[in-house]
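Target chain:
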Amino acid sequence: MNGYRPPKDPWGSDYQYVLIPGQPPGCGVYSPGADRVSLSRGNDRDDLNTWDGNTPWLAYYGSLQQQKSPLPSIAITLAAVLPVAAWLLGRRLRRSSADSTDTATGGPRA
């Protein structure tokens, strides 16, 4: 991917990709929000993430309604980035599984 740079959130921070075992699709994406800090890997009240259906950050960013809200651009970016993250995670897990199978059977690595 020559010259490709993932998009940044509206506050200029990188979106963070995390593994979330036990929840489909097994990974998620979050933005640390306006303060650019996440103390809980995407679960702070002001963090925007793809796995919390309760969306606690809506209350935090409610004051942005008078300004131009970044929420639509965040939602669009997360919708675009999450499938790529899931694909990359699946690819990584398949490789890891194949490597452990080859190691266990003593077979050659492809």
In short: The two ends are 23 Å apart (CA to CA). The chain is about 35% helix and 10% strand. The chain has one domain: 1-52+69-110.
